[in-house]
Design brief:
About 40% of the residues lie in helices and about 20% in strands. The chain contains nine helices and nine strands. The radius of gyration is 22 Å and the shape is elongated.
Length: about 250
């Protein structure tokens, strides 16, 4: 599947922890995943206490909990929202004394990519500039974006990026932070001069050194830590504006 790995990990962690809570005297938790008809179905099944119908109907409601003061009631509600954002759904089957089964249904990668391609064809994507002095990282980001139908221009140095930004307008800029002579902050300044509304993404291994004040001062829209995953690069583009006019 295509997705945000930390979010999907959170979903399955919530379900496993709920299964553990439902079995105070022990039991079995079974995890399975199968492909069927263009989708992936991941199942979390426990042999715990199960749920009465009223509880089963409400488990995805925000702040609903059966754990008393120990629970916030947000785990499954948040999980439901995450899976919906991924174009999927969650089904639950449970009976008192017979355990609970959660089924997480997500579109298979090829189905997701077809949907994305159709969306790109009907709605031109943003013009993107990628800046990094590490060739391997630069080529990886460019490959990820182009494989998903985006218009991408690359620059291997800050001065090269500045020259491009003087001649062309970009909607999104991905930039490394630590570069020789011309830093990522310099790239951000140059980008904002050309387009005050540009969506700026800093991609860096030095994320811990970027303060909230830096983010406000330079107008950083997003920060991605190296090493990153494909979904980290792609998911941000749902917030970026498409081009307002052709080049």
């Amino acid at each position: 599947v295509m997705g945000n790995a930390p979010e999907l990990i959170e979903v399955f962690t919530n379900m496993i922890l709920n299964a553990v809570d439902a079995m105070p005297e022990g039991g079995d938790i079974t995890l399975t995943a199968v492909r069927e008809s263009g989708r992936v179905v991941a199942t979390v099944r426990d042999t715990g206490s199960g749920m009465i119908p009223d509880v089963r109907r409400r488990i995805f409601d925000p702040f609903f909990t059966t754990k008393g003061m120990q629970g916030t009631g947000l785990g499954l509600s948040v999980s439901y929202g995450i899976i919906e954002r991924h174009g999927g759904s969650i089904e639950v089957d449970s009976e008192p004394g017979r355990g609970t089964t959660f089924r997480v249904i997500l579109p298979a990668r090829e189905v997701y990519e077809k949907r994305l391609a159709r969306a790109r064809a009907s709605h031109p994507g943003p013009r993107i500039l990628v800046v990094d002095d590490e060739v391997d990282v630069l080529e990886l980001i460019v490959e990820i974006l182009r494989a998903n139908g985006f218009q991408v221009t690359s620059a291997q140095s800050g001065p090269e990026a500045a020259e491009l930004l003087e001649r062309r307008t970009f909607d999104v800029v991905y930039t490394d932070l630590k570069m020789e002579d011309f830093t990522g902050w310099d790239v951000v300044r140059a980008a904002r001069r050309g387009n005050p509304d540009v969506f700026v993404v800093v991609v860096t291994a030095w994320g811990g050194q970027v303060s909230d004040e830096d983010i406000r001062k330079f107008g950083i829209n997003a920060l991605i830590a190296k090493p990153f995953q494909e979904s980290d690069i792609l998911d941000l583009l749902t917030d970026a504006e498409p081009p307002s006019d052709p080049e």
